[in-house]
Amino acid sequence: MLQTLNIKNVALIKNLSIDFGKGFNVLLGETGAGKSIIFDSLNFVLGGKADKELLRTGEDLMKVDALFSELSSQAIALLNELGVEVEENEILLSRSLTRDGKSVIRVNGTPMIASTLKKIGSILVDSYSQHESIELLNNKNHLAMLDKFGGQSLWALKNEVKERYERYQNTLAQIKAMGGDVFERERTKALLEYQIKEIEEASLHDGEDEEVKSRLLMLANAEKICDGVKSCNEALENSSMSAIVQVQEALMSINNVTGIEVIDSCKERLNSCKYELQDINETLNDFASELNFNEFELEKLDKRNDLIKSMLKKYGGSISEVLLFCENAKDRLNKLNDAEFELEMLENLKVQQESSLFEACNSLTNKRAEVAKVIEGKVVKELSELGMKNTTFIVEFEKAEGFSANGYDIARFAFSANKGQEVKALSKTASGGEMSRFMLAIKNIFAEFGSAETLIFDEIDAGIGGETGVVVGEKISKLSKNNQVICITHLPQVASYCDEMFYVSKKVEGESTVTNVERLDEQGIIEGLAKMVGGDATEVALKHSQEMRAKAK
User: Fold this and answer.
1) Which end of the chain, N or C, is less packed with Cβ atoms under 10 Å?
2) 357 sits in which H/E element
3) Whole-angstrom distance, CA of residue 271 vs CA of residue 485
4) CA 185/CA 397 separation, integer angstroms
């Protein structure tokens, strides 16, 4: 249950702390006093939208804390699944927002992200507002609600479907790992055989791509290289002023000079130059003799280079990667060839499991149809007691495409409030007042199966009055025996059933308006009811309120 709500700097609220009670809590107050701000604050701390428009004028930070206590074992288990440790059966949610949009969220002092906070909030509180889309109106949730109502017998069937589905999916995964069904496997084998053949026929070897590129570069520039080598050789030895001859003549000119250190050093260096130039000359001559330009070789190397590029593009960034791809393809092909017998067994198992799963899904569907009939009767009965005598309510089923761990059913709640009116999806056909009563009926039927022990009703009695208001009060009172209910109502017939009543008011303090909340004693409750009845706590209104309160008790 929600034990304490602390609100700071939210709209008209400056600093407010509310201690809610068990059972049925009612918020009273004039329009604009701040009742909805309290619900907006609670929605904020439960993971709702962080709206800077809620920040109180002149303040830079708003903060809301919500302390929940006396949690059920089911709620604790769900919170533990989200990684939230519950100590002493309490959980404290805290959320702040600055004017520049920075939000800080903590759960029991631990930082938390907004999406996780929202999941935590949905476990702790189930809220209904006249103007909000909620869980019970979402078609996607109807099947889960129906299953909750089905009890252990239905859940046993759900678990059986889940187990059979998981075994079926495991078999499909094994078949896929071995190449899929017979047609897919043959396509895979044909592709592998083609890839292996293409790579092997290419006869690639490591480093060949660089070798081919280097040879192509040489052949493409053969004429230019030959001219360069020839000119260099002539400069070295084939002209009257060749470099080698000039070095030799220079050496001879100083050869007879001895005993001088500088001259001896120069003679050694000239000798080194002569031998180096002769070696260069011989190397160039050898290279020139091997350099033959061959048009056929150039064309052949061009084709080889194109083939290598194609292999690298298809099978890897280098020749070693292409060769590795080929080895892996051979391994996979061998496994596919060796798996024929095992695949045949898996295919037979798949057929058996598919039939078994279909049988379990049919049993689950039939059970759901039985449960749906019970729910339909209960909803019609509840709505009839709420003044809707000609209501039609049905659970519509359709079959989904394919199996899932939840069977193959899609369920939708359909509704008609008047005799002869076409039955349509609830969200498309119910008016505001009808929706309120329908929601109350559903809450009463499903209350014992929900994990949230705090229910929030924001003007659930909109569009109704008179004797129907009395019945709504009785229904909420019944609901509050096992759940904490916090409700904004404008009907004294509903409010008279409260266990706790809070009066919300506003007053001017200095240059600003502030919302306050007062917890009323029994006399205050009667006076509050009197104001709802007649606007003022007149003697007649007070007497009428005392009678309503006595009857409600």
Assistant:
1) C
2) helix 340-385
3) 110
4) 38
DSSP 69-102: ES--HHHHHHHHHTTPPPBTTEEEEEEEEETTS-
Q: Which residues pair with 399 in a beta bridge?
A: 409
Edge to edge, what strands does the sheet with 103-107 contain? 13-19, 2-10, 61-69, 90-98, 103-107, 110-111
Dihedral-angle region of residue 394 (phi above 0 means left; psi in -120 to 50 means alpha; beta otherwise): beta
HSE (side-chain half, CA atoms, 13 Å) at 91: 26
Q: Which residue has the tokens 């009667």?
A: 526
Residues sharing a CB contact under 8 Å with residue 230, sequence separation 6 or more, in sequence order: 288
Q: Which stretch of 27-41, 152-166, 416-430 has the lowest confidence by average pLDDT?
A: 416-430
Q: CA 300, 301, 304, 305 torsion: positive or negative? A: negative
**Whole-Å CA distances, 159 to 63, 407, 438:** 43, 10, 31
Query: Taking CA 356 as the corner, what is the angle to CA 350 and CA 362, rounded to the nearest 5 degrees?
Result: 135
Q: Which spans in 221-339 are helix H?
A: 222-233, 243-255, 261-290, 295-315, 319-338
Q: Is 230 helix (H, G, I), strand (E, B) or coil?
A: helix
Q: What is the pLDDT of residue 132?
A: 45
Distance CA 431, CA 118 (A): 28
Q: Would you state the pLDDT for residue 552?
A: 86
pTM for the model stands at 0.62
Nearest Cα residue to 328 out of 311, 341, 315:
315
Which is it for strands 484-488 and 24-29: parallel, antiparallel or unpaired? Answer: parallel
Backbone φ and ψ for 420, nearest 5 degrees, come out as 85, -10
Residues 6+ positions from 540 with CB-CB distance below 8 Å: 534
Residue 51 structure tokens: 């709206």
Burial tier of 410 (Cβ tally within 10 Å: 0-12, 13-18, 19+): middle
DSSP 56: P
Higher pLDDT, 505 or 263: 505
Identify the DSSP state of 130: T
